[in-house]
Design brief:
heterodimer, A: about 650 residues, alpha+beta, 4 domains, four-stranded antiparallel beta sheet, globular, B: about 140 residues, five-stranded mixed barrel
Amino acid sequence: MIPEFGQLALALALCLALVQGTVPIVGAALGRADWMALARPAAAGQFVFVAIAFGALEYAFLNDDFSVLFVAEHSNSALPVFYKATAAWGGHEGSMLLWIAVLAVWTMAVAAGSRSQPQEFASRVLGVLGIVSAGVIAFAFITSNPFTRLIPAPADGNDLNPLLQDPGMIFHPPTLYVGYVGMAVPFAFAVAALLTGRLDKDWARWTRPWTVVAWLFLTVGITLGSWWAYYELGWGGWWFWDPVENSSFMPWLMATALIHSLAVTERRGIFKSWTVLLAIAAFSLSLLGTFLTRAGVLISVHAFASDPTRGLFILGLLAIFSGGSLLLFALRARNFEAEGGFKLVSREAFLLANNILLVVAAGLVLFGTLAPLIVEAIGLGKISVGPPYFNLVFLVPAVPLVALIGVGMHTAWRTMPGDALLRRVRVPAIVAVAIGVVAPFVFFDAASVLTVLAVSIALWVCASSLLDPVRRLVQRTGAPLTRGQVGMCLAHFGVGVFMLGATVTSAYNFERDFAARPGDRIEAGGYEFVFNGVRSVPGPNFVADEGEFELRDEGELLAVLKPQVRVYQVQQQPMTEAAIDSTVLRDVFVALGEPLGDNAWSVRLRVKPLIGLLWLGSGLMALGGLVAVTDRRYRVAVRKTEHATAQPAPGAA
Amino acid sequence: MTSRTQRKLFIVVVLAGITLAGFLTYRALQENLLYFFSPTQIAAGEAPKRTFRLGGMVLAGSLKREPGTLNVSFVVTDNVHSVPVKYSRVLPDLFREGAGAVVIGRLNDDGEFIGEEVLAKHDENYMPPEVAEALEAAREAQGR
């Protein structure tokens, strides 16, 4: 019965989403306060029913209800209970339900946070979120119902894909979805502004914290995914330019551009149309990502053609949301007058450059992701666009982008004399370039021009980001930094840290495959590895061959590493579990392959210097976002409302 | 800056960005595109000298190891034609005889395919789509 309850709850949620998507918007157009007031209760009701549906699916998983097709396909009675709970998003149908649930949470948050905004505007925002939600629930209901029954029920389930049986799987998809789906919020704000015809500094101030929160979750989600790929996919890469990765990275690039464009709109009342377009583009890319990962097009255009229902449905949604909002934009954009101008050397000009470079980067990634599909669809053969393409075309906008951060941060709004700017950034620039040229040779004996350039730029951004906070702490002069400024410095410092890690770990990565026999000593990457052999180890739902390696540096034992090859009993799929010894300065990575005969095993050894900076840098970016959204000017608005609701108007009593 | 010159500047910068992006894309694609060829296409002499992707089934019983080393050889077939492959790195988890595989590498003068990377990263029932289609094409060509 429980799965049927879930299905019913989802149907009711769809009905409420339709109400939320129509009545308040019509009410706003007609100026009827009672219709507009329906937005919040409808959103709350939708949230409750979506929560019931999600709870029902979790119940089916936790109770091993294999009469539900989705549970039978993605779970097994021997699966640890942890993974039973997370298996709910281990496949297509469940992840769509997660998408819907995350949108419901965002909608509730917006409903609660928008009370200080004019009712006409807030009800339009909630209405647009209702339309989005209705579209996605209808998609789940019609093409991917997670509650479909499987009669007769099998005795046991097909088990969760072993790749997904990992702690990373608990956090990565929900976090990523919070960011991904969160792009619907700035989209809704943009469409509401187009409907209202009013787009000003207030609008940007309302939109900005939501965008930053969605962006920071997207940042954390992508980082967790990259980290998971690094240690779980087994072979030590951290970014593969896989279409699935790209489909979360493109919205991230757009969201990053949007945050910066919103800063200009909030501060100066310009870049209005551009900001709206970015909000539409970020959400469209999120939907496109859903299409790419969920419609089977990535496996093959032909796989898509043989079962096009899902794909066509998502394409239809994409056409309605993007096309509709762009049409609205075309009709309304001329209303948005710029409220001022700026000079060539100004904060605005640097942010414009930032936006263009980010959009170019996103465009190049999009092209590389779609090119194989387009080529195959028009019958020109089969191609694959691999990492070499992406590494090359991504660096070209990314390197100047990061380099400009260091200058842009110290530029004044409107205009600034060039020599004054030069004086401010001179010292960190000289220091960074000096270290950037010398350090690679001191620590690694060799460096290419690109490595020196990238290390210098990374250090420069770090130094430049610290300039204002350090000056404030040491000299104790000038106005205290706002949380917005501190957040910006932190996030930009994180960009520098990330770039330093990415550069060094790519340029000085040591990687080799060996055939090792028990007792072998292998000198590799500056360390000594002693192989003590392989033994069999049982797990809850797998059997593993576990190797033992002593990691030694000049005879001194640093760590004992135990990589495994697991064979999961149900799916009989082998899985490599690498063993990693992490310190601040480097990771040593050992993965066990297979028996080679003659008592030997294949082994992959990697030494990855500074790879920890990738996670640290991304974490700092997200932390910077978190600090920035707690800025006073966003809290003031909230407190004002609390004040207003606490003291009812005198005449009311 | 007036809004008119601002707009002009904006358009110029955007156009420059698009041109640069287009040029880069063109260059990067020229050098980094990997085409896919089946054993039948290779037998017909269609395969290039440079790196490409070879796909098919790993012929059952063809996997041979040089004992105690990483060197392996196996045969990739589309059930009509076959190509011998040499490889000397760790094989991926899901590589097995009788299953589909895609190998990136190049042909040497003896007609052997020297693999640089073996791709087999999906579940055990998964057949790389190119492989499925190549098998189908080879079957049809033979039947005719």
